[in-house]
Amino acid sequence: MNKYKTIIGLEVHIEQNTESKMFCRCSGRYFEKEPNSNTCPVCLGLPGAMPFANRKAIQNTILFGLSFGCEIAKYSKFDRKHYFYPDLPKSFQISQYDLPLCGEGVCEFGFGKVRIKRIHQEEDTGKLTHIEEAGAKSSLVDFNRSGVPLMEMVTEPDFTSADDVVTFLKYVQKVVRYLGISDADMEKGSMRLEANISLSPDGSLPDYKVELKNINSFKFLKGAIEAEVKRQEEALNSGEKLIQETRGYDQVRKKTVRQRVKETASDYRYFPEPDLLPIVLTDKDIDEVRSRLPELPIAKQLRFESSFGVSVQYAELLTEDRDKADFFEHLVKETKLDPKKIASELINNKNYEGVSSVEEFKRIFERENPTLESDIDLITGIVSKVLEANQDAVAKYKAGKLEVIGFLIGQVQRELKGKADPAETKKILENLLS
Amino acid sequence: MITEFSKAQNQIKSGQATVKSRVEYFLKRIEEFDGELNSFITITGEEALKKAEQMDTLFSEKGEEVFEKMPLFGLVFSAKDMYLTEGVKTTAGSKLLSDFVPPYSSTVISRLTEAGAILIGKTNQDAWAHGSSGENSDFGVTKNPWDKSRVPGGSSSGAAVSVAAGFCDFAMGTDTGGSVRLPASFTNVVGLKPTYGAISRYGVIAMASSLDTMGNFAISSSDSKKIFDIVKGQDGFDQTVLDVNGAAPKTKYTIGVPKQYFSEGMDPSVERLVLDAIEKISQMGHKVVEVELPSTDYAISAYYVICPAEVSSNLGRYDGVRMGLNRDAFGDEAKRRIMLGTYVLESGYVDAYYNKAVAVRDLIKSEFEQAFSKVDLMLAPVSPTLPFKLGEKSNDPLSMYLADVYTVAINIAGVCALSVPCGFSDDLPVGLQIIGPSFGEQMVFDLAQSYQEATDWHTKSPKL
Amino acid sequence: MHTVTKNDVARVASLSKLTLTPAETELFEKQLSEIVTHIDKIATLEISSSQKHTESGTLLKMREDTIDELNKLTPNEALSNTNSKKSGMFEVKYVFSQTDES
Known about the structure:
The complex is a heterotrimer.
Chain A: E1 5-15, H1 55-67, E2 75-76, E3 79-82, E4 92-95, E5 105-109, E6 112-123, E7 127-133, E8 136-142, E9 149-155, H2 162-179, E10 191-200, E11 210-212, H3 218-237, E12 245-250, E13 255-258, E14 271-272, E15 279-280, H4 283-290, H5 297-308, H6 312-318, H7 322-335, H8 339-348, H9 358-368, H10 376-389, H11 391-398, H12 404-415, H13 422-433
Parallel strand pairs in A: 11-12
Antiparallel strand pairs in A: 1-9, 1-10, 2-15, 3-4, 3-14, 5-6, 6-9, 7-8, 10-11, 12-13
Chain B: H1 4-14, H2 19-37, E1 40-43, H3 45-62, H4 65-69, E2 76-80, H5 107-114, E3 118-123, H6 157-164, E4 170-175, H7 181-187, E5 190-193, E6 213-218, H8 221-231, E7 254-258, H9 268-283, E8 287-291, H10 296-314, H11 332-345, H12 354-374, E9 377-381, H13 397-402, H14 408-413, E10 416-425, E11 428-436, H15 441-454
Helix pairs in contact in B: 2-3, 8-15, 10-11, 10-12
Chain C: H1 6-15, H2 22-43, H3 75-78, E1 85-86, E2 89-93
Antiparallel strand pairs in C: 1-2
């Protein structure tokens, strides 16, 4: 049994999928483009160039904040964060220091509350690759990504296990995809995680934290956090003193490894970005963004469970992404089939992959359920038999418990191995019971 | 009013001159006299002549309508080497950028060119616009054409001299703390410091982003106005630019004289000429009253915190990777300002210096607003001294900084001002500063024009 | 009253990525001290910035999310002012990645 309490706080960077970059009119899509083919004087940091803020990116960050219940600041501003690094063309990153766009928020999960400390707007850096030729190492810089809008979410240290972190991050990913503001793809780097991990013997916040970085897949996330927790536990057990450091994950050895920290200044010398106006929002500005807020995955999942009788597990899978959920609801409305049947077809049958129209769905459904029985005489015969055998239910129905009809339909389906036309069956039942 | 611009354009219209002959005339003058004055870093003679020929062809085809479509048709200008010019070397006066050929042009240069003006060259300046004398250039000092043993004022030293010495019709400079007005005053030309946010800074090498303004030099204030009207307004690249129609000209102005601008340590001959000019303007029928700008004393201190802080940030991008040489190529003054700026932004000092300076800026702004609620315009000296000797202050940065005592507060307040020639002492020119509220340029130009109509100081030119 | 020490100069130079000679360090220590002494007169003022919110609705002053190819640089233009390039990228001395996989 673990005698220490695990304390984890997260910093999540999410790259937006806007058409253009944060502060210039270069394309926001840089993936697999020819190096340095997606730049302009602004994002290349040439002399004389200055930023011009992208309204959509700001609105997206507000939307992200609203979906986590964050307070949206009426007055926020951009600041320059200074450090020298070859992938940072201006020698400062435009970020937000003391007045972030989104303030505190809170989100409930099965494992408990997660408090959001802040969400702010910033810009991405260029990308480095490293080469070695004749024993000499050097780094190459591509600025195609420079200036792509980034959102940084910082949570309070509210996580106590790797599982909770995974649950939360999957939810974050789902939300931004619902909002349509990012692909949030960890492999591609459009969602990046830093986990600050420490172990406490008494529940109070320890005086160190280990920054776990550069985990670029959900696959390794759980293992990485658990490996780090284990390492710290062993260290504490052997009386070792843990220190503040940055570590990465070695996927092969399944261990965290100490990382060289970038050799940059410890003092970022923040000051307000003079080239940009402060972000001063009216209630109308915020309401306009709020009106774009879709039904969020948690709410949708609960509604699917209660309105359609779909299981928790199915509801979760159906609400995994917004298109899937919308299509499911559309099918329920258009086909009049049993929602649970639709759900199980969609989830368990590979033949529906890529299907996006009702007609297509119906075609496959009929192919997959070829002998859907609609012979009224045959069904009527079965129904009579079922009523005979379930006098209790008939009595309840007659006493006004109309919902037992579901049970009776189920009994008919059992007789017909699930092939009875549910609408027809229901009609016949209702006739015979009235 | 007959202005230098209309004179020049009338010569073209009447056939007395062609655009090409004017460019040739200026190139010859530059060749003859600029060897000693050193006002240019790069001369774009070939391109200018080619462009001039095209314009002469255009005029012969289209006739006088070209002057309506292109208000600056046939006029020749120079630009401080802070203005990016596509395909033309742009150095900021520093050897760090001695081979930098920008792939794009600044908004101001594009607008002037579209309006028919022809660029004849890029002018010398204090490196990175750090300085008040023009001596801090990696391309040699620029000399004052009125007395070649003296400084022309800086940092837009070459731009001012190029107009004063008759090398072009007008020049573009930048004014962050006085860098247009001071050299205008020292060389007997008109120099505009526009309202912050009136003209896009896009494509101009940044010194201090919250203070930089795109000024111009001309012989007459109505020419300066013509340039301003062409280059002002939003461009979609500089978010701080506003399209504002400021106060319109009046027949009679109430004019304030801030008593803090006549402090001890001012050269008595400068004071006498400025007071004479104020008297003259009062005689022209305007009402002159005393006003207070009590925090003037703190302006230099606040300026030398905010400016270096932004300098340290803006010069970070020069690391020798994407352009230019590495950081060792910075001169002493750039290094000094970068380090001072870094110091005042460090977490241990940011409250004592940077945040305090921002508070002083708020205070100065509100004092200017208060003053302008009582008066339309203000009058003050530009410089406390006459043009000083070359080398006199170059080893004493603090005394050099103090030369900006009457100009920096205008940048801090973000308002506009114009330096206009108001007389000579010992054959050295002195400028009068006409200060207007935010976007009050049209009133400033109007008063300056009537003052120039009533005086002839600006018609005097130096013997080269 | 703050004075600028040799240590301050060294620290600030390193933060600014400037390499100073001993002579420069000495000169700047003296000159920066003089300047800091002068600007110190605002350090003691008892005022603070009001951070005025006079402007409102600044979202309107931001730009639409659209692409403009006109301002874009070709890879050749982007690399036109550097001497250290390789495979269409800027080449620098080896540094450790901050966000990428090392």
